[in-house]
Amino acid sequence: MVTLLDVAASAGVSRSTVSLVINKSPLVKDETRQRVERAIQELGYVPNPNARGLVKKENKSLGVIIAIEDQPYNTYEFNYETGLYSYNITNGIPVGLANTDYGLLTERFCVSIQGKELPALVKNNRVDGIFLVGGLFTPELIERLKEKKIPIIAIGRYYDQIDSVSTDVTQGVYLGVRYLLDQGYRKICYINCPQIYRSNAERVAGVQKAMREFHLEMKPDWLVYCKHNTGEGGYEAIKRLWQSGARPQAIAAANEPIALGIMRFLYEQDIRIPEDIAIVSYEDSVLGGYAVPALTSVNIQKEYMGELAARIMLKRIRKGQEGELEHIIVEPNLVVRSSVGKC
Amino acid sequence: MVTLLDVAASAGVSRSTVSLVINKSPLVKDETRQRVERAIQELGYVPNPNARGLVKKENKSLGVIIAIEDQPYNTYEFNYETGLYSYNITNGIPVGLANTDYGLLTERFCVSIQGKELPALVKNNRVDGIFLVGGLFTPELIERLKEKKIPIIAIGRYYDQIDSVSTDVTQGVYLGVRYLLDQGYRKICYINCPQIYRSNAERVAGVQKAMREFHLEMKPDWLVYCKHNTGEGGYEAIKRLWQSGARPQAIAAANEPIALGIMRFLYEQDIRIPEDIAIVSYEDSVLGGYAVPALTSVNIQKEYMGELAARIMLKRIRKGQEGELEHIIVEPNLVVRSSVGKC
DNA sequence: CTGAAAGCGCTTACAG
DNA sequence: CTGAAAGCGCTTACAG
After folding, report:
1. CB within 7 A of strand C (chain A, 12-41)
2. Domains of chain B by residue range
3. Which Gene3D superfamilies match (chains A, B) (predicted)?
């Protein structure tokens, strides 16, 4: 393995000089720098990350902590959550990290089971900062995380204790329902996430805001909650509604898994989308783009949230933990595909 | 920050002894060990990974190199690849790494653009070994990778130069087509991947094996290739076939994106699945489980391939690079859902 | 079974 | 602008 010393010898300078060159210090004479750079090239020298990390007290790695409900169970089935939400968010992070040499380490963390411990990545001091994805983190856990004194950025959900990048849920839901109304639909039902989610109130507010603009009231029975954030959850919810005799012209779903559950039920009843009934979804994912028919959905910009979070992280690392918390709200936007017609 | 020295002082031993305890050496007297362990507990000591890595010459990180066609472009649309293949494989790796303290770093690498360089993770010596996912790696690139002298395991595709975990494509495709035949379908068409894929021959072999068992011949016109591995690719392929007048009883698709493209075309024609036409897919993903109707598909066990690859990696790190290459073939299995009936 | 000492490959004041 | 020296926090022979 070629080290600093080899480069120094080859270039005829001291180790400090080589180090200064590597770290782009302006203190080195141009001619010396070039000589050193040539030696680095020739020898194929690469700085040892551990040696550097040891003295600079940094890992050049960031952690993504994904909150999960229980043990990760790999399945593609309709009655399981898809994991696409955290996957898409995580995909955006490297975009914001481009042109840095930060690596990204991922860990799934079950708050309910491992709640008393810390994620291994932070416990073992493997990372210089962490991203929290998912809404399952408790305030207590976040407090314990903060004791490690590394930057923490929440993605997808607002937490008042730390920096966050989240989405305007009310506005997003509003956009979807509003689009249905704009297209002439009036008899609209909303299939919401399971009751336990705190963001449900924001969703309902979005529905109501749109309805009121059209001087309509949401029928209380037409606001239903799924048991799970899965296809089956949506399927069962629409089935119950249908069996109660409800015949909406359009359905707004809280996310794609739920929307696809609804679509499956309708398919079984031989009800055509969008000819017989319209459906609009929220969140957006490959499930929406690939759905049959393609789902009109509100895109909450998951990748972009990840990217922005990465930028905040870099800033925190550079400037330190002091200063105002940042709470960025990303605007959702409607993606019109083929599941809504004209009423 | 608490260091080895603090623990040593607190426990009244030397640093070497603490180090031996941490590394579970049997050389330490039981009573001493307990004293040291108590001190570690009390002080909340965590070994510094960089210091340890520096002397042991290891990173305790592994890299996943995902081959991509061109720049990653984030979209959920029907005319883009989904990325689910590499995502699912990558998800399996941590399972095989459980109870070790290896972290997993991911890098997307565009062979055609960055072909002359090495992935940053390996160039900068950030990882102790790498997993190659995707079939786009060239033999030359692999040779250059091997010069780094770290273990390399290919997942999903066989390469003769390195360890690999892959799938029996012919058997998988056979399973799917065979199932159609078993259910009574005879007029079957096969929608294959784009021509450039080397695995296409294996797929065709699978189709033919099944057909011959039933004393049938594949009509050459009914074996068609998509332009892209996307929904649109499948959509356009089936459209061409349909417009040529072909009316198959059943369709076998080379993967879910293609299958969903086919399903979209059929939906537009108001052709019901499975009542009017059956469809079987291959690979399996959340796109299949959530499809409307749910897709019967051949599961190639992507997560399990990742898990096995991780185990091989651990073995290679322990035992070194010597010894026979391992080439594991994972058996595919049919997942019966709702897209195939009885003919 | 335990301790003193050298060394892993860097960076960073400090002189000059 | 450059070099000698100390130090980051560990592990590992080597004595004893």
Report:
1. 15-16, 18-20, 22-23
2. 4-47, 61-167+302-331, 169-300
3. 3.40.50.2300, lambda repressor-like DNA-binding domains (1.10.260.40)
